[in-house]
Design a protein that fits this description.
The structure holds two protein chains of two kinds. Chain A is mainly alpha-helical. Chain A is 71% helix and 2% strand. The longest helix of chain A has 28 residues. Chain B is 0% helix and 0% strand. Classes of the chains: A mainly alpha, B little secondary structure. Chain A: One of its GO terms (cellular component) is cis-Golgi network.
């Protein structure tokens, strides 16, 4: 474990809780893409199946349980508890357009042809593009509430920090995971446009408006 | 690809 990865995980947990708190406190899923949350739930379920038989550390196990439960809780809040506030008209990104390519990529790039390794690769590729429905929704609605922007900033920062972690691990322990690194770079690039808007708009106290 | 099927990262 290194500081970059720890900060990345903290940023990730922060993002998950910002979103849950926002939906729970405002009792509304307005502006939130339920489809992205479904994709994240699939990512965590596919990646953390090894939870039940490969113990790495208490931290690792606790975090996996947390991400799985938090993403399921978020999907439940959006599609069940606060279903009336879910903005389905603007959450229209076809998730099969990311599910199918991720699955194909998993069959091409994987570390072993075992079910769990295919699931792991699939989850890595899927996570890289899981935020697309949410970013798509922000461009369709033309804006995002501040709290949603903070959520996206924390979520984008998590994988950006992981890139620093991979650089660090490469030079200190020769660890290199090409699948995770490539997908992580793509994932972070997808946020760049948003990062720019966030820094130039939200941090100046203005609302995040995506220019129509 | 490199066969590091030991995933210690989240």
């Amino acid at each position: 474990m290194n500081l970059f990865r720890l900060m990345g995980d903290v940023s990730h947990v922060l993002a998950v809780f910002i979103l849950l708190a926002k939906i729970w406190r405002t009792r509304s899923a307005a502006g939130i893409s339920g489809r992205s949350q479904i994709l994240f739930t699939i990512v965590y379920l596919a990646r953390y199946m090894d939870l039940f038989f490969s113990f790495i550390s208490l931290y690792n196990t606790v975090m996996k349980l947390l991400f799985i439960s938090a993403s399921c809780a978020t999907v439940y809040l959006i599609y069940f508890k606060f279903r009336a506030t879910y903005d389905g008209n603007h959450d229209t990104f076809r998730i099969e357009f990311v599910l199918v390519p991720s699955l194909l990529l998993a069959f091409i790039f994987h570390y072993s042809m075992s079910f769990f390794e295919l699931a792991w690769s699939f989850s890595i590729f899927l996570e890289a593009v899981a935020i697309l429905p949410q970013l798509f929704m922000v461009t369709k609605t033309g804006e995002a509430e501040n709290i949603t922007s903070h959520y996206l900033f924390a979520l984008g920062s998590y994988r950006a920090l992981y890139i620093l972690n991979w650089i660090y691990r490469y030079y200190t322990e020769g660890h290199f995971d090409p699948i995770a690194v490539c997908a992580g770079i793509v994932q972070t690039i997808l946020y760049c446009d948003f990062f720019y808007l966030y820094v130039t708009k939200v941090l100046q106290g203005r609302k995040l408006q995506v220019l129509p | 690809l490199l066969r590091n099927t030991f995933h210690d990262e989240l």
